[in-house]
Amino acid sequence: MKKEYFDTLYETTLKEENSVLALSLPIALLYKHIFNKNAHFLQTNYNLTHSEIDVLAALSSYKIMTPTDLYEATIFSSGGMTKILKKLEQKQFISRVSSDKDKRSKLVKLEPKGEEIFQLCLVNILAIDNEIFSVLDEKEKESFEKILKKLVYSTLE
Questions:
Q1: Which end of the chain lies in a sparser environment, N or C, as judged by fewer CB atoms within 10 Å?
Q2: Cβ pair 54, 74 in contact under 8 A
């Protein structure tokens, strides 16, 4: 979206009765920009999707998880999870291991190759995100983080 369209939208549409749009629209536009920029980088440089990185990120914290836990820690369907796990397993970023508690179930384990690629992607994604948020000073970043957490927490179970 061009700045002139954004400014016109604020002047014409986002009046008092629609004031919540003055909050939600910028968040949506910012999310879209960050998502697209990171997705392009991941696909171009590492042949990875956001969903695959989300799974690697969750596993980076826990190392071994059940597919159900992964599903709950990320934001896509259980059917989508199966597809993503297969791709990550083919790339040797994860492996499926038997559970000690239930031999019928398979856990998802982060492999060293998966940890390495995740850390490499994380460094580069942080650089992209730092560039985007560089227009804010440290105090603004802290305030923005508090506000976003408050909003997100209000939507979580």
A1: C
A2: yes
Question: Which backbone phi and psi does 108 adopt, to 5 degrees?
Answer: -105, 125
C-beta separation of 111 from 95 below 8 A: yes
For CA atoms 12, 18, 151, 64, the dihedral sign is negative
Domain architecture of the chain: domains with CATH: 21-153 (1.10.10.10)
In sequence order, the β-bridge partners of residue 96 are 108
96: region left, alpha or beta (phi > 0 left; psi from -120 to 50 alpha): beta
Place of tokens 């038997």: 98
Half-sphere CA count of 61, side-chain side, radius 13 A: 9
Q: How far, in Å, CA of 57 to CA of 83, rounded?
A: 17
pTM of the predicted model as reported, rounded to 2 decimal places: 0.79
Q: In this structure, are residues 104 and 113 in contact, taking their beta carbons and an 8 Å threshold?
A: no
Two tokens at 155? 């939507």
Q: Of 73, 39, 79, which Cα lies nearest the Cα of 56?
A: 73
Q: What is the pLDDT of residues 21-79, one digit of tens each?
A: 778 888 988 999 999 999 999 999 999 998 999 999 999 999 899 888 888 888 766 67
